[in-house]
Amino acid sequence: MTGERIGLYDVDSKIPNLALMKLSAWHRNRGDFPELYRPVAHHAYSKIYASKIFEFSTAPYLTPDMEKGGTGFDLATKLPDEIENLDPDYSIYRYPHSIGFTMRGCRFRCKFCVVPEKEGRPKGSKTIPELWTNRGSSFVVLLDNDFFGQVHWKERIQEMVDLDLMVNFSQGLNIRLITDEQAQALSTVKFRNLHNTRKQVYFAWDRIRDEKLILDGVDRVTRAGIKPTYMAFYVLVGFDSTPDEDMKRIMMIRDLGCDPYVMPYNRTDPYQKKIARWVNHKAIFGSTKWEDYQTTGRQKEAPYDEGQTLLLFAASLGAVQTLNDSDLESLRAGVRRVYDLMNRGGWHEAQAIRLAAGEHGIPASEGLRRMRELRKFGFEIERERVEGSRSWRYRLRSDRND
Ligand code: SF4
To answer: What spacing in Å lies between the alpha carbon of 228 and ligand 1's midpoint?
Structure first.
């Protein structure tokens, strides 16, 4: 019996999608040929799985024949145990590191969060040696929502240290409850940011009323020997806080010497989008006041202007024809769609990017020349051949946290 071709549609993951990688492993074990979904090959797949993490994401290629899963679609769908327990197949993303959970669940019940409903109270999942399956790399990304909420956190820390691993706590650690002992243990770990480019550990400050808890937590972590410059804070805006309260948290985090990172609750809200762009784009945050950013907007951003950068990118792929400044306004909507698509991570084919931009064509040689220009703007576009095809696919990388 010959294997079947299986499509895995990753709608919006920022890092390789664990569920899709496990489905890939399961199908590969059966002799099938799983691959990341390509809309042009839709008719060739025997089965297509679609996974969406965020409710707000659109899924432009979703069709009724796909099997859907992920918190972006619903909270109930779960992988069967025989698939859940498999090691992920990283090859579909060509991801060289390891990703996984040492625990599930959370001690808190924040109103804006789906974790308590989906996963319940904290419980252990895998040990570090169990989830560190890509042993060619010593970098591990943890998806735990409440690492120190699990009973066996000490053993997991000891495993990280004994195996000399670099670890990213991608969902943040709970600084409100961190004890001196836990902070001390954390200081023995080689914690890193998501792209493994610098030493960084993430926490969150979501509610203004937690000010004292946050400050006490920063104090404990600092006393354990972790410098504030190594700490980053997710700052939720737009849920139940006012702009003044948002600004207060952002500035307090900055003044502590830590790195604020704004998470908009509603990504379509103009204020939330704007403050996220201002804070999260570090070159802008470091050089432009909020008042100036609000009133003068993009002129203040040059040469880090995201619109201009993405216009160059869209042009490099033939999505737009010219690079004149005068075109920027009219092309911004298309460029923004390109950015939204690319910024989700993962690979995207040129055709999909052109579709997002809404326009067509320049010669490929001119596109490549323009693509090289992007490096000046701190964005790196990676390119690779689509297997069995003459076309290319692309991935956006930048040194930002997102
Ligand atoms: S602490 Fe984090 S994971 Fe837990 S409920 Fe709150 S937001 Fe969700």
So the answer is: 22
